[in-house]
Amino acid sequence: MxxxxxxxxxxxxxxxxxxxxxxxxxxxxxxxxxLLKALPIMKEKSLWxxxxxxNWKPFKGEFGFLPYIISTLYVSLIAIxxxxxxxxxxxxxxxxYASKTISRIxxxxxxxxxxxxxxxxxxxxxxxxxPLIANKIAPRYVEFSSGFSVLAGGLVLAIMILPLLxxxxxxxxxxxxxxxxxxxxxxxxxxxxxxxxxxxxxSFPGIIAATVLSVSRAFGxxxxxxxxxxxIPIIPHSLFDACYPLxxxxxxxxxxxxxxxxxxxxxxxxxxxxxxxxxIFNAISRLTLNQIEKxxxx
Amino acid sequence: MNNPGLAFVSDVFEDYxxxxxxxxxxxxxxxxxxxLNVYIENQHILQDINLTIPEKSITCIIGPSGCGKSxxxxxxxxxxxxxxxxxxNGQVIVDDEDIYGVNVNVIDVRKKMxxxxxxxxxxxxxxxxNVAYGPRIHGLKKRKAINQTVIQYLQYxxxxxxxxxxxxxxxxxxxxxxxxxxxxxxxxxxxxxxILGDEATSALDPISTKxxxxxxxxxxxxxxxxxxxxxxxxxxxxxxYIVFMYLGKIIESGSTEEFFNNPKxxxxxxxxxxxxx
Amino acid sequence: MINTKRQEEIFFKILMIxxxxxxxxxxxxxxxxxxxxxLPALDWDMVSKLPGGGFYLGKEGxxxxxxxxxxxLISGSVVISLTLSVPLVLFINFYLPKKSVFAxxxxxxxxxxxxxxxxxxxxxxxxxxxxxxMRASLLGGIIxxxxxxxxxxxxxxxxxxxxxPRxxxxxxxxxxxxxxxxxxxILRQLMPGLVxxxxxxxxxxxxxxxxxxFTAGYTDNLPNALNHPAATLPLSIFFQLGSPVEEVQNRAxxxxxxxxxxxxxxxFSARYFxxxxxxxxI
Lengths: 298, 277, 282
Fold this sequence. Notes:
Structural class of chain C: mainly alpha
Low-confidence stretches of chain C: none
Largest sheet of chain B: 6 strands, mixed
Oligomer: heterotrimer
Order of helices and strands of chain B: HEEEHEEHEHHHHEHEHEEHH
Distance between the termini of chain B: 29 Å
Mean pLDDT of chain B: 85
Radius of gyration of chain B: 19 Å
Number of strands of chain C: 0
CATH class of chain B: Alpha Beta
Strand order of the largest sheet of chain B: 6-7-8-3-9-10
Shape of chain B: globular
CATH class of the largest domain in chain C: Mainly Alpha
Largest interface: A-C, 85 and 86 residues
CATH architecture of chain B: 3-Layer(aba) Sandwich
């Protein structure tokens, strides 16, 4: 009996340890297998050529990723420019001024926004944002826009990263020790002064980390972006031009790629690129956030 | 050996030190702690603890908070095993065997010690299963035997009549005093030889406290009981022996009567008069 | 001087309230749009029939293929990721010491896996399937989605597990329980937290299109084997929205309503369970 129990305990420990190692390896396995798949194209062309060329002609074996990279950066930039002020303002409000009732109403809103699947955002974007841009906004600035554009992508992405951004900002603000803000308030500063001079300044690294994390979320977003960006592989010149972010490229071309040499490898290179950048961004910002949590919790 | 911790056990202990041969202790149920030092992350939490706990009696460990009394208690059933920051040197000999020895099974050590924690912590299951849990994991399978054990220990702690019709209900619905008695029954059901109490009444109301205290007095006929307590009055009420600790050291120990009426150390007198706590 | 300070505060306060209102109205706007477009298209045939004449052009039938496909897919993924996540979380919380470096490395790696986009899981799943010689199939989709939701499950289950007071593990250990026996009892206590984690993971997994795009494939039929392709709700929206036929588009909108309702239910039940859990604890 005693031995059976000890045996069960030991086996459970071994199995769990195995799972733990497996899960540690997972990140590595994903990275390495994408890299292996991307190797053929990387052998043929230099990394620089792949990244800096704007020529995308799979039939001729030309794979220049520049339009996709620019598109991704452009769309994500628009998204964070829209999302950051909104999240900061609402995050500060929830942490300082808001009554319990408002927080209680707002929390499920954030939950739901983060729960809504990308494809629903895509549907909503094509039904509302795209026509809005095509008919109302774009005509004021350019001759013609289909509405499927950088701006549409940026707007939809902005809303999609809002919940992540707000919830991390809230975490950052709430990890500030209460004594710091109390000290400022007791010196006669108004709430807003305290926010400006103490809260924002003290949580600056956290805000940066939250921003980086949200940007990397925007980098990887696929379906919604695919549905509203227009997907034309040219470098976009204005907000109202169509664009073709990297994830959309991968998603759109699977299936047909197997018939063309190196096409699959090129797409996998795209996935690998995305993976590496996002992992690095995530690692940096998570480390920062962990540091903040540790500093204030001790 | 002029160690203050040896007051009431000096005979056995001095032999051990002076004759340099390991005297075999008589094999009744005693715990004897020898040269115990405990460090937590370079902090010397327990310093040179030497102590023998007499059997079938209540020994109360008292002292201001942070003096290491809870750490000492947890050392006795190896609850520090999962915290690698805690380094333990020395011997804790329970029934002739050093529980920190190489071949000792920690499960056996813990089975010998029933622990009653500060706050009652019922397991997330029914009242019945709470008491039955220990015997079950230790190999009791027959339904009848389990039923009998559960009823016996629930009766023992005076809970049986209170919970009779609802032993299948969740244990978390009991009052906190009832929960603590349930925890005691649960601990007794694994048939320990020792009972450890870690401020076991500090979360309870006076009536529940009194019930638990009466239980301890009844239990000492069969068990060796070691209690950490924060109230001097409780120690006075129920203890047979007192161990007074301060800053990780045993300052004074002895029989309750002597300890309270005729303390030997200035520190003890200060503590008893309430100059610090 | 004092006046401008006050004015500044009032100005920003108004901005804050506006941004709160904007965010709330966006949510209502999105849900409203989906319902407005989808509800008229939603009838009994829609949820009970397979698409007739092909999902892209056929005007008849509904999206039963996608509903069933999504259910199969998510159940499979939840089973796989549960069997990995639960032991993992119990391991890092109760088998490893409290300040274990190994545990923090694992937590960190799941923080990062959580950030890996679904398209990468899809691409990885696809690469894995080619390596194993599989075609787009239910099983492929299950594996890819399991990878996608595992970080969500681990992180959210770990969060509640870390909050468990030491009392319960201590009580169990002092009764002479082995770590394994202890973990089983603790799991019972953590059930509401685990349910919340599952609901969150299901919500994310059932709505994600990029992971299943090349791993699960798409079909007009019900999946009847693990190695057959399976339709899913998000792809049913994605593919059918692009069709020139209005009836087919309607199927996409109807699927959007179904998916949104599922998400709403999941989100609110997750909230219910986690609040129930915290009530028990305090």
